[in-house]
């Protein structure tokens, strides 16, 4: 098999395969035109391949006729593709070139059409021009090629964004391809330059198809990959059959008396045996070298997806996701919005980058509603293209105004892609990505990988939320008097869990100890079992310790010490918020019978709540302690000048789990527990509040029985 035959065979195989994929996935007239273009180029390549293999001039001529049946329409279809792609004008010229191509097609099919075949390059029957017909043909053939490039160049200068990038690739690849195709005309006019151009045509066909379908119209990377693998397998099979047949017939045939039929059969058998190893090798090579960037990129994202499942802190998880996507994908910005508690809007939870993200999006927004109905990644450039295509709008049951309502906010915020995260409960949120720093557009490969990542992220987010809910529930349970029952339950459960876990770990450790020569993979699996079983046993043990109730310890103690320690912990925070803490605490207060830790928690909670109510606007909190009821009680009064509490909320302020704070900012147990702790000290906790003027808490504790009350001054004033 000669070089021209190999190049032409690769060209034909590539073009026919591309045409098959394009027709199968065609979504517009442009796609169909490009498929027909590839079919014609493939016919041209197939005809030349067969013509260059035959040793009969008449048979070669028939194959050249076949080649010209496709070749005459190549330049015409090229111009039609450009005409459609650039929304050009000039139907008269289009009609003219189709007419002249049809005339030459008929002449070629039913006459000699101005050429014959003669031997060239020692073994190939090539065509040679006879008269003016084959002089006129190349002129008319190149006319739409030249004009098409001019139209494409002018459109390129006016275009912006994605279309400009597509035109750039299309112009360059077509120029290379037609330069390769033009080489076929040299031998026709006795310029004996070997026509290697089919190799260039193969390359430009792939690159030009990539340029047209690059923006999410077809997954051209998969097509290119499969085409290369197919072409490689075809070339391997042809090479094996050709080389082995030649060797057996030339050398071994004489010694072993192998007939040509047996030689060919053996060649085919060897090619079949080599098929699968060759396919695997070609797939790996195309992944590793031709698509190395995508290969590494997808591998990194998959590794990140596996790592997310190990993070249980929601804020940390979201921060990691935006950091990873921004740095690894090299985008201007990344933001994550999650559905809020009342499920009315998606609220910004994490962001990174140079673009100001949206703080929230209503569940009723056009973009959100579309993503809820079709939870697939959305690319802004693609939405813009939908507005230009009535067929795309009809296919998605959208109006132009609806798409425009989606595109507007995305363009304003410089968001290039939106990737939804869908869990069992529906759309839980989405990731908004800015433009790539490289200027490249989001491809199908990008969005497919991001979609897989968002699925894993949705699971990780749901797990993190569940873990936070579990922590909150644990905190609530710990603070209740039913902790003893929970402790018993934990003990029972841990007993049921710990026994089988201990058996599993023990068997695995014993197997490892008794089999030191295990292969690396098996040993790794067993060690992983031991490691994670130990971790589960530790969790069970922590649960047991966590659930054991710790009884308070009541003893003689100065109440001012618990107050001062609570204030000390909050003083720096008050300074940062420009809140003035005023303390009026006498120095000669009698002791009480109490638990220092419980009282410290009471004062800490109330003062901290006051600081949170005042916020960052600045204000004052006054803590005043005095003896009342004839010296039998100590009263601590905590006054703030915050916004106050409404009468409706004031009635429920000591109810368990009642809170006016945002989700995740409070459990609703703080004041309930404070009331319970003061009750344990045989005291009382009351509150007064006026909206807009502030809140006052009154804590009364009995002086320890039998303690002599010392007379003295009013005490020291500290502020």
Layout of SSEs?
Blueprint (H helix, E strand, L loop, with lengths): L2 H23 L3 H25 L3 H15 L2 H12 L5 H20 L4 E6 L3 E6 L3 H26 L2 H22 L14 H17 L6 H37 L3 H31 L1 H17 L5 H15 L4 E7 L5 E9 L6 E3 L3 H8 L4 E2 H8 L2 H6 L4 H13 L2 E9 L2 E9 L9 H35 L4 H32 L5 H28 L7 E3 L1 H18 L2 E6 L7 E3 L1 H19 L4 E10 L4 E8 L6 H4 L19 H11 L3 E7 L3 E9 L14 E2 L1
Parallel strand pairs: 10-12
Antiparallel strand pairs: 1-2, 3-4, 3-8, 4-5, 6-7, 7-8, 9-11, 10-16, 12-13, 13-15, 14-15
What would your notes on this structure say?
- This protein is elongated.
- The longest helix is centred in the N-terminal third of the chain and has 37 residues, at 220-256.
- Helix 10 packs across helix 11 (292-308).
- The chain has helices at residues 3-25, 29-53, 57-71, 74-85, 91-110, 133-158, 161-182, 197-213, 220-256, 260-290, 292-308, 314-328, 366-373, 380-387, 390-395, 400-412, 444-478, 483-514, 520-547, 559-576, 596-614, 647-650, 670-680, and strands spanning 115-120, 124-129, 333-339, 345-353, 360-362, 378-379, 415-423, 426-434, 555-557, 579-584, 592-594, 619-628, 633-640, 684-690, 694-702, 717-718.
- 61% of the residues lie in helices and 14% in strands.
- A hairpin with a 6-residue loop joins strand 4 and strand 5 (360-362).
- It contains 23 helices and 16 strands.
- It has 719 residues and is α+β, with helices and mostly antiparallel strands.
- Mean pLDDT is 77; it is low at 215-226, 287-295, 545-549, 663-668 and 710-719.
- The chain has a 6-stranded antiparallel beta sheet with strand order 5-4-3-8-7-6, sandwiched between helices. A 6-stranded mixed beta sheet has the order 14-15-13-12-10-16.
């Amino acid at each position: 098999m000669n070089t021209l035959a190999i190049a032409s065979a690769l060209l034909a195989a590539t073009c026919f395969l591309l045409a098959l994929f394009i027709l199968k996935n065609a979504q517009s007239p442009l796609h169909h035109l490009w498929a027909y273009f590839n079919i014609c180029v493939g016919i041209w390549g197939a005809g030349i391949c067969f013509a260059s293999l035959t040793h009969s001039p008449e048979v070669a001529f028939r194959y050249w006729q076949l080649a010209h049946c496709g070749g005459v329409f190549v330049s015409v279809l090229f111009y039609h593709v450009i005409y459609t792609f650039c929304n050009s004008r000039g139907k008269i010229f289009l009609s003219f070139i189709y007419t002249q191509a049809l005339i030459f097609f008929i002449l070629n099919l039913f006459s000699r059409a101005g050429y014959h075949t003669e031997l060239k390059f020692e073994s190939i029957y090539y065509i040679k021009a006879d008269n003016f017909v084959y002089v006129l043909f190349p002129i008319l053939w190149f006319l739409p090629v030249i004009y098409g490039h001019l139209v494409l160049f002018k459109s390129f200068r006016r275009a912006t964004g994605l279309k400009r990038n597509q035109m750039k690739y299309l112009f360059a690849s077509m120029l290379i391809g037609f330069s390769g195709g033009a080489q076929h005309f040299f031998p026709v006019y006795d310029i004996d330059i070997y026509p290697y151009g089919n190799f260039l045509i193969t390359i430009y066909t792939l690159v030009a198809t990539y340029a047209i379908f690059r923006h999410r119209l077809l997954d051209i990377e998969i097509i290119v990959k499969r085409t290369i693998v197919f072409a490689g397998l075809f070339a391997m099979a042809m090479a094996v059959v050709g080389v082995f047949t030649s060797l057996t017939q030339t050398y071994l045939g004489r010694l072993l008396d192998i007939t040509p039929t047996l030689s060919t059969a053996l060649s085919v058998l060897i090619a079949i045996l080599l098929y699968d190893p060759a396919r695997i090798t070609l797939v790996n090579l195309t992944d590793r070298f031709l698509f190395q960037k995508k290969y590494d990129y997808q591998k990194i994202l998959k590794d990140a997806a596996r790592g997310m499942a190990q993070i249980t802190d929601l804020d940390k998880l979201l921060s990691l996701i935006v950091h990873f996507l921004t740095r690894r994908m090299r985008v201007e910005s990344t933001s994550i919005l999650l559905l809020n508690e009342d499920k009315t809007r998606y609220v910004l939870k994490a962001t990174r980058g140079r673009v100001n993200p949206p703080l929230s999006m209503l569940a009723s927004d056009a973009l959100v509603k579309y993503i809820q109905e079709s939870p697939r990644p959305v690319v802004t450039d693609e939405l813009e293209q939908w507005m230009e295509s009535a067929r795309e709008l009809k296919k998605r049951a959208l109006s132009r105004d609806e798409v425009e309502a989606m595109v507007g906010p995305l363009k304003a915020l410089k968001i290039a892609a939106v990737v939804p995260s869908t869990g069992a409960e529906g759309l839980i949120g989405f990731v908004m990505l800015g433009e790539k720093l490289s200027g490249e557009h989001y491809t199908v490969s990008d969005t497919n990988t991001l979609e897989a990542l968002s699925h894993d992220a949705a699971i990780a987010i749901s797990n993190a939320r569940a873990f936070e809910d579990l922590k909150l529930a644990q905190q609530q349970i710990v603070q209740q008097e039913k902790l003893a029952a929970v402790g018993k339950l934990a003990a029972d459960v841990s007993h049921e869990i710990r026994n089988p876990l201990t058996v599993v770990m023990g068997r695995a450790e014993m197997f490892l100890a008794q089999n030191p020569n295990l292969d690396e993979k098996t040993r790794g699996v067993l060690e992983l079992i031991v490691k994670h079983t130990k971790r589960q046993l530790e969790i069970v043990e922590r649960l047991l310790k966590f659930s054991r109730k710790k009884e308070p310890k009541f003893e003689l103690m100065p109440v001012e010490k618990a107050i001062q320690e609570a204030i000390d912990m909050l003083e720096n925070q008050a300074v940062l918020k420009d809140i003035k803490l005023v303390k009026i605490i006498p120095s000669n207060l009698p002791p009480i019978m109490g638990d220092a830790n419980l009282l410290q928690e009471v004062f800490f909670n109330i003062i901290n709540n006051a600081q949170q109510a005042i916020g960052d606007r600045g204000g004052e909190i006054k803590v005043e302690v005095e003896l009342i009821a004839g010296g039998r009680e100590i009263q601590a009064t905590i006054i703030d000048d915050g916004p106050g509490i409404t009468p409706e909320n004031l009635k429920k302020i000591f109810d368990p789990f009642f809170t006016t704070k945002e989700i995740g900012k409070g459990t609703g147990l703080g004041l309930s527990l404070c009331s319970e702790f003061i009750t344990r000290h045989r005291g009382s906790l009351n509150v007064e509040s006026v909206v807009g003027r502030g809140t006052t808490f009154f804590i009364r504790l009995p002086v320890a029985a039998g303690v002599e009350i010392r007379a003295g001054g009013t005490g020291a004033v500290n502020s």
